[in-house]
Amino acid sequence: MPLLSGPLPDTVQTVHIMGIGGTAMAAFAGMLKDAGYTVTGSDTGVYPPMSDYLASLGIEVMIGYNAKNLDASPDLVVVGNVIRAEYDEAQALLGGPLTYASMPQLLGARFLESRHSIVVAGTHGKTPTTALTAHLLDAAGRDPGFLIGGLAKNFDRTARTGTGPHFVIEGDEYDTAFYDKGPKFLHYRPKTAMITSVEFDHADIYTDLDHVKSSFRRLVAIMPADGALVARWDHDNVRDVCLEAGCEVLRYGAGQSWDGRIEGVDTERGVQRFVVLNEGNLWGRFESVLVGEHNLYNQVAAVAALARQGLGPDELARGFASFAGVKRRQEVIGEPRHVTVLDDFAHHPTAVKVTLEALRLRFGKRRMWAIFEPRSATSRRKVFQDAYAGAFGAADVVVIAGAHDQGRIAETERFDSKELVADLRARGQEAFGYDTVDEIAAVVAANALPWDVVAVLSNGGFGGLHKKLLAAIEANATPSTA
User: Fold this and answer.
1) How far are the Cα atoms of 159, 192, 245, 301 from residue 225, in angstroms, in the given order?
2) What is the pLDDT of residues 295-314, one digit of tens each?
3) Is pLDDT above 70 for 477?
4) Which single residue of 145, 171, 296, 476 could bond 121 by disulfide (Cβ 3.0 to 4.6 Å)?
5) Rounded CA gap, 303 and 136, in Å?
6) Is-contact 167 146, C-beta < 8 A?
7) Mean pLDDT, residues 211-228
8) Is the dihedral of CA 221, 223, 226, 231 positive or negative?
9) Which CATH superfamily is 331-474 part of?
């Protein structure tokens, strides 16, 4: 059971991926296929669009984590972080002669060794900032490689090798594999690293904020002396983890060396005009579909990082103008009967708050609904019970769903949706709680009025609410008043 160490041997030709059905893993499989490897995979089930994508590449997918999946003796087995040690396939791997590696480890060994790795890290904002940075390089003709934890609308896949010197990667602080509990970003060989924010999250693997900060300190510690940290210096936790940096630190945020200012929002087109300042002087003027103060500073971070790589204001402005955004980040998915329905990934209370504030800026005085599903490992626990009560202030009407699958969480540790509804009402907000997706769709469809904005917030599928909501609003030709 040898664990891969050092560079990937030239003798590796066949690769088997355990947990191939996830978005990132399927995209990584495509990168390996493009690089000339024969790739197979296994999962409990693979569904569109990833199943269609893997089929288009001719990648065989075995259903179930069975020991027989390894009978062909692949040269290397990639272990996804969804894999548990007790699975039959994992047991066969650990008890056999095959070499294995995690996806982050193999990515670093095979694709990042000779590249300028730009790692986008932080509790919030990683996916849109990674997608934007990759697009800005691409629009400037740099042909970067990238791995994005979401579907960027400017690209037809979430990962690619690229031929340019840069590789942009979303640096997740989540653990790497069942046998490697360190954060994924430690494998990504950063030469430039952005740290957008540091807060407590991932309550299933981190015990407290100090535990989270220890992982980010490890990222800072592996930065090369000629590298650069792009750090949100007006955030205390970010500043704290970066104090011992042994490389250049590009400080950004309000009142920092790199700053920004929103000049206006076009609520019809859904775009934000902003300027970036360097040492108090105008550096560039831009327009983007990423709206809100948090997005302003994510974009300032990308500018600061890429300015150090030689990109100028004019070519960055062209890139910003053509950036189409990321699916599930303030994404308009339909406008039945002039009701604008959006899908967003926000689930941490800070993300919920800044997302709704950004949507308020984007849509002005239109009545806004926020529909929230507690689904992530952290949001299903009571650790943020009180914090959520202050996260929905920008919404006019709040609908809270029952928490998703709390079976493995002790009753005393479970998040309480009804308690949140009561807390919101105590603050004077119009708030409701419903147990089923069908109830939510029916109530919102019956009460949403033309020009309302309905934001669906969940880091999962929300039981198909999005499609049900669009259909119910369309079918409800005569809405009542709430």
Assistant:
1) 28, 11, 9, 20
2) 999 999 999 999 999 999 99
3) no
4) 171
5) 9
6) yes
7) 96
8) negative
9) Mur ligase, C-terminal domain (3.90.190.20)
Residue type, position 20, single letter: I
What is the token pair recorded at 280?
Answer: 């108090």
Torsional sign, CA 122, 125, 127, 128: negative
Mean of pLDDT values over 468-473: 92
Residues 413/417/423/428 CA torsion (nearest 10 deg): 160
The number of C-alpha atoms within 13 Å of 390 and in the hemisphere containing its C-beta is 4
pLDDT exceeds cutoff 90 at 462: no
Average pLDDT value for residue range 229-254: 97
Residue 90 main-chain phi, psi, to 5 deg: -65, -40
Of 227, 234, 231, 253, nearest to 242 by C-alpha is 231
Q: What is the mean pLDDT of residues 268-290?
A: 94
What contacts 72, CB < 8 A, 6 or more positions away?
Answer: 14, 16, 40
**Domain ranges in the chain?**
14-102, 114-322, 331-474
Mean pLDDT of 187-214: 91
How far the first Cα of the chain sits from its last, in Å, is 62
CATH of 114-322, one of 3.90.230.10, 3.90.420.10, 3.40.1190.10, 3.40.50.720: 3.40.1190.10
Mapped onto helix, strand or coil, the DSSP state of residue 175 is: strand
pLDDT, position 105: 93
* Average pLDDT of the residues in 56-79: 95
Q: For the whole model, what pTM was predicted?
A: 0.85
CATH number 3.30.43.10 given to 14-102: no
Tokens 């664990």 appear where?
Answer: 3
